[in-house]
Amino acid sequence: MDTPSQPRSEPPTVAAENDDFTRTIACGERALNLLKQLRAHAKPRNYELFYCFTLGTNKEFCDALRSAIQKDLRLTEEAADRLFHAYLAKPDVTARVSEVGSKIGDEMDDIMSLISSASEKAGKYGESLQGINEKLPGIESPQQLKGMLTELFETTKEMAEHNKVLERRLVESKAQIDELHMKLELTRLENFIDELTGLTTRKRFDQIIDLEMQQAEETDEALCLLLIDIDHFKSFNDAHGHQTGDQVLRLVGQTLKTNVKGRDCAARYGGEEFAVLLPRTSLKAAITVAQQFRVAVKTKELVKKSTKASLGHVTLSVGVACYRKSESATEFIERADALLYAAKEAGRDNVQAEPDPRICEAKPTAA
Fold first, then answer.
1. Which of 169, 251, 319, 346 could form a disulfide with 340 if both were Cys (CB 3.0 to 4.6 A apart)?
2. What is the DSSP letter of 138?
3. Cα separation of 117 and 109, whole Å?
4. Distance between CA 329 and CA 338 in Å, rounded?
5. Rounded to whole angstroms, how far apart are CA atoms 153 and 147?
6. Pairing assessment for the beta strands 351-353 and 316-322 based on DSSP bridges
7. pLDDT digits over 29-88, tens only?
8. CB distance 296 to 259 below 8 Å
9. What is the DSSP letter of 355?
10. Are residues 349 and 237 in contact, defined by beta-carbon separation less than 8 angstroms?
11. CATH of domain 202-366
């Protein structure tokens, strides 16, 4: 039955779009309600889990999510990660890049086909003009001239219309290619940025450290690495919950992000561990930077968002190593990791660094 809001003359496609809009909004609202009821952090991953649950299109996933919630009476971070990667994780970035690249290739093939068609059409138009030119000397009456002009007019009109279609298709193709290029860049960027902290991902860090080591070899410039660990993070997580733990990770991530500059690279290395690469930075300067990070985080008081209660302060342990020529990335990172371990052994909340990066036997010293 027709209603005032949906007149009989409305195209079926518009009606379908309206129905789809209403359905997706309803699913979104139900997903948000579930997040609130279970007091789950409303970050994109959790929202996507509950949105897909409300859609109900994947029974196996819905059953798995329901079981996970019933088991712990809430959605734990571990369960959310497991379910997301098992059922909803997007294809590998390489596959997505390949897919977008394939679409760009298809669009380019269409453009080349259009250009080829236009070239063929232009060739025929040229031949037609040449034929008319050859006939001109033989014109003996106004009727013959009129017929030739009519032929010329029709041929020119057809060519103009063809050119308009070609121009429109080229504009559309350019817009499509621009959009695909944007998707390609976003896909690549997505693989480089940690969702929670906004820092560089471990995968991207592994690529950058190789490039910076190569640069240090070629230029003989200093390159320092900071490995940073949040002290007693597991205990803090267990005591205050994963949402507050995420708050701590974001705090440290934001502190690192706002205090690096130029070619410096701050990355979430894994869990509660972070890594900072400092190209063209001496060991002494790197130690200063590490101390600045430590102090900046320690001086910020944590407040539980739900109750506004003070949770105290977070401290960092930091290991600082300077790159040694010809060593591998693994060796470089292992030395920084050993210094980080030394910082923890020294009581945490401190920076440990080698006194001289050129002396392999040097023992770590407190900074």
1. 319
2. G
3. 12
4. 14
5. 10
6. parallel
7. 888 888 888 888 777 778 888 888 887 777 888 888 888 888 777 888 888 888 887 777
8. yes
9. S
10. no
11. 3.30.70.270
